[in-house]
Design a protein that fits this description.
The chain is α+β, with helices and mostly antiparallel strands. The protein has one domain. It is about 30% helix and about 25% strand. The chain contains 4 helices and 13 strands. The strands form 2 sheets. It has an 11-stranded antiparallel beta sheet. A hairpin with an 8-residue loop joins strand 7 and strand 8. Helix 3 packs antiparallel against helix 4.
Length: about 230
């Protein structure tokens, strides 16, 4: 009996070592990709003539970039859908998320930015993970719109400067852990077509006065779908 037990222990140790090696390699790969990201030096003044900012926060904030547990100074460009990382006082880079899936978690925040693919789009984008499960998950994208400068039409008019609008919040749904994201329908009828057990969901929405535009309501609804509907 001792020999089989010894073999099982040895296999377990080998598997753990192998898994740890994979994780270490992933961490090194991420750190390498961060260090070799596209430099922002040539682009940092491209919106200097615009009112407002393309960033959610103008200042860099401390955030962990996974895999790994290392913290960097980052800020999110909500117009270009890019994550910038300040490596030092002289160098700021843009993460190349085409070469790796990132999870960026601001210090002290319960939510993370994750790079995922949206239906009908080739490029990965950054989405805030609101509620993650193995079945139905909820995400949101924070975007800003850029309006170019408008020249004066007559001598009595003045030029209208370029400006960035306030960030817009759009919700997305993921129907399984492998699926790409799709924009969450704003109309109840369209939303219900995503699920086979639509009557049960419709009754829950009506009973609880759920609004598909409100994050707290959507969290309650997705939790209900995962706990009740998906079990059937």
């Amino acid at each position: 009996m001792k020999k089989p037990l010894f073999i099982l222990i040895l296999i377990g140790i080998s598997f753990n070592c192998f898994s740890q090696q994979i994780l270490n390699n992933s961490i090194r790969d991420v750190e390498h990709l961060i260090a070799t990201g596209r430099s922002l030096e040539n682009n940092e003044n491209r919106y200097s003539d615009a009112k407002g900012t393309p960033y959610l926060t103008e200042n860099f904030i401390s955030a962990k970039i996974s895999p790994g547990d290392k913290f960097y100074w980052v800020r999110y460009n909500a117009y270009d859908d890019e994550m910038e990382v300040k490596l030092n006082d002289q160098k700021t880079i843009v993460l190349d998320n085409s070469k790796g899936n990132y999870r960026i978690t601001p210090k002290g925040s319960p939510n993370s930015y994750v790079s995922l693919k949206e239906v009908s789009k080739d490029k990965l984008g950054y989405f805030v993970e609101v509620l993650k499960t193995n079945t139905t998950s909820l995400y949101k994208k924070l975007e800003k719109k850029y309006t170019p400068k408008t020249p004066a039409i007559t001598t009595y008019d003045k030029d209208k400067p370029a400006y960035f609008s306030k960030e817009k919040e759009t919700f997305y749904i993921q129907l399984s852990s492998e699926d790409v994201l799709q924009e969450l329908p704003s109309k109840q009828k369209t939303f219900l077509t995503l699920f086979s057990n639509d009557k049960e969901i419709k009754d829950y929405i009506k009973k609880n006065k759920i609004k598909l535009s409100k994050e707290p309501d959507l969290i309650k609804l997705i939790n209900f779908i995962n706990s009740s509907v998906n079990k059937g």
